[in-house]
Design a protein that fits this description.
The structure is a single chain. The protein has two domains: 212 residues, 3-Layer(aba) Sandwich (Aspartate Aminotransferase, domain 2), CATH 3.40.640.10; 86 residues, Aspartate Aminotransferase, domain 1, CATH 3.90.1150. It is built from 13 helices and 13 strands. With 373 residues, the chain is of the alpha/beta class. The N terminus is likely disordered. 46% of the residues are buried. Strands 2, 3, 4, 5, 6, 7, 8 and 9 form an eight-stranded mixed beta sheet that branches. Helix 2 packs antiparallel against helix 10 and helix 11 packs parallel to helix 13. The chain is 40% helix and 14% strand. It binds pyridoxal-5'-phosphate. The site of pyridoxal-5'-phosphate has 13 residues, from helix 4.
């Protein structure tokens, strides 16, 4: 095939695929047990905070259509996505850096601020990827404990901050606890600390929090050189497998982070960028996911209330609960029931269940009930 006819063929195939009814495509439809791992078909996967309702029909169609451009670098897709993000967050396009999942931003931040050694601050337990990255570069992380109510301990972090501090990491709402830090407190903390230290806020679950994106510090990040916010398309938008995330920061900070961005910053595929763009044009799907996931979360919390199982007040798509009412470790018990959940060596006594579809959560509740006594 000549290049031209190959392209024409690809274009036609993508359009033909896009024209197929979605039920006939080799991808599971929404509301199915679509979050089961390949090769583990019998398991319900409630262990990685994936969105069982995703990806949306619009995102699937966008991926298929993007195949026609699979032989091209994704610059055009990037610009569209960056402009859309900027509009949604009410910041300028220069304040946006897109990445292969927000994990890539966490790595970039760990590298940028940790490369010369020193202290990185952050509570424990948290989503510790950035700090562990910095530790591998020779930084020290003292793992500041959460407060007695399992809240992110801003007071303790402020006390610890000093001349050796290279970065303060906040996860809001926090993973694995699910607990949200009050917006007003966090904003005041950042205003104060950013005068002296870079502050990084991981907002992977912000859309599930009490005030949704109104709890975000994206506006502050765009204006303040020492504040960086990260977001992801993996959670509310259900694109975990396509790997799309982004940072919002002042243009000077974006330039700093770009210094270490691999592949000259071209790490998201056409398909990922196209799907992410489609998600931003589909607010109905976003509110559908939020509504269903909050509904599933409430079902689980109601069951825990009935059984006297202690849990943390979640502002996310997962619930962290205490193990002591269970006749065996919940993770092991649930594995026997073909449900994957999570526990942590470094956070003994607690387990975490991700919120899947409402039906999956009913199955989880029925299964868990057998081990509570
Ligand atoms: C708090 C938090 N931040 C970041 C991530 C990374 O997500 P991704 O790389 O898929 O954007 C996760 C994933 O579970 C997370 O829980």
């Amino acid at each position: 095939m000549t290049t031209l006819s190959r392209r024409a063929w690809l274009h036609r195939s993508a359009l033909a695929a896009a024209a197929l009814p979605l039920s006939r495509l080799p991808i599971p439809a929404q509301d199915s047990k679509s979050d089961r791992p390949v090769g583990d078909e019998d398991f319900i996967r409630l262990s990685s905070n994936e969105n069982a309702y995703g990806p949306s029909d619009a995102a699937r169609t966008a991926v298929l259509e993007s195949l026609a451009d699979a032989n091209r670098y994704p610059r055009h897709y990037y610009q569209t996505l960056i402009d859309q993000i900027a509009e949604r967050e009410n910041v300028s396009s220069e304040c946006v850096l897109i990445s292969a999942g927000s994990s890539e931003i966490l790595g970039l931040v760990g590298l940028t601020y940790g490369i010369e050694g020193g202290d990185v601050l952050g509570c424990h337990p948290t989503f510790d990827f950035a700090m562990r990255y910095a530790e591998r570069l020779g930084c020290t992380w003292s793992r500041t404990p959460l407060d007695e109510n399992y809240h992110y301990n801003l007071g303790a972090l402020a006390e610890e901050a000093g001349p050796n501090t290279r970065m303060i990491f906040i996860c809001n709402p926090n993973n694995p606890t699910g607990v949200e830090t009050p917006h007003v407190e966090l904003r005041a903390f950042c205003i104060d600390q950013a005068r002296r230290h870079p502050v990084f806020i991981d907002e992977a679950y912000i859309e599930f929090s009490s005030r949704g994106r109104n709890n975000s510090l994206a506006d502050m990040a765009a204006q303040t050189p020492n504040v960086v916010v990260s977001r992801t398309f993996s959670k509310i938008h259900g694109l975990a497998g396509l790997r799309v995330g982004y940072a919002i920061a002042h243009p000077s900070t974006i330039a700093l982070l770009k210094n270490y961005h691999t592949g000259r910053g071209v790490t998201v595929s056409n398909a990922g960028a196209a799907a992410a763009s489609a998600c931003l044009s589909d607010p109905e799907f976003e509110s559908f996911c939020r509504k269903k996931i909050v509904q599933g979360r409430e079902l689980v919390c109601m069951a825990f209330d009935g059984w006297g199982v202690e849990y943390m007040k979640s502002a996310t798509s997962f619930v962290c609960f205490r193990n002591d009412k269970f006749s065996m470790k919940p993770r092991e018990a649930m594995e026997k029931e073909k449900i994957l959940i999570r526990d942590y060596d470094e956070f003994p006594g607690w387990s975490r269940v991700s919120i899947g579809t409402v039906d999956e959560m009913k199955t989880f509740i029925d299964a868990a009930k057998k081990y509570v006594g």
